[in-house]
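Re: weekly structure request thread

Next one in the queue (214 aa):
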Amino acid sequence: MRRWLPGLAVTVLLTACHSSWNNGEGQTFGVAQVNVQREFQYKDYNTMTLKKARQIGIEPLANRDEARHKMRRLNRIEDSPYYKLDPMPHSMPYLAKGAKKLLTTIGKRFQKELKREGYRKHRIIVTSMLRTREDVARLQRVNGNAVKNSAHMYATTFDITYTRFNRLDTEGRPVSNELMANILGYVLGELRDDGLCRVIFERNQHCFHIMSNK
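Done, posted below.
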């Protein structure tokens, strides 16, 4: 029995917030609130993530113009079988090599857990990646939780929402967003215990803030 199963009700009825099934992109379902178990509400505080990000990441970029000339060390991230990207007005879809590998690993392990329990195949959804200093400044004007010294500036960090998931097929048992949120929390905990990442549970932003350690 997995640690994320006790006490969780598997809700069959899901609320569709977006549908793009006909164009091959799957179908995204979201709910306003989910109950993430306390053990998955990780608190690797930003001072800890920043120290490591500065060691292994890129030098922060001033703005998008500078970014366009210094992308050689980075990997452009696009939708894959394991994750889907949200529109990102305040960040760019680029990550360092280690962070890209970590993101793929999270997506693969998440799907492995779903398959193990006979649930339908879903992708995780990424909501934020690389930010320039200018991006951070603009975000601070609309998001009171945004910090000036953001770990997102080093290309080692990304956010995954825990309230929305992208369904890829209808084979298997229906699964609620709440259960998937806790499965994702369980997967992140394993990787965190293995020293591969640091994680911050962000309740207000409905996401896991994840930083690669490699």
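The CA atoms of residues 49 and 198 lie 7 Å apart. Strands lie at 16-19, 27-30, 75-76, 83-85, 94-95, 122-128, 157-161, 164-167, 197-202, 207-212.
Next request, please.
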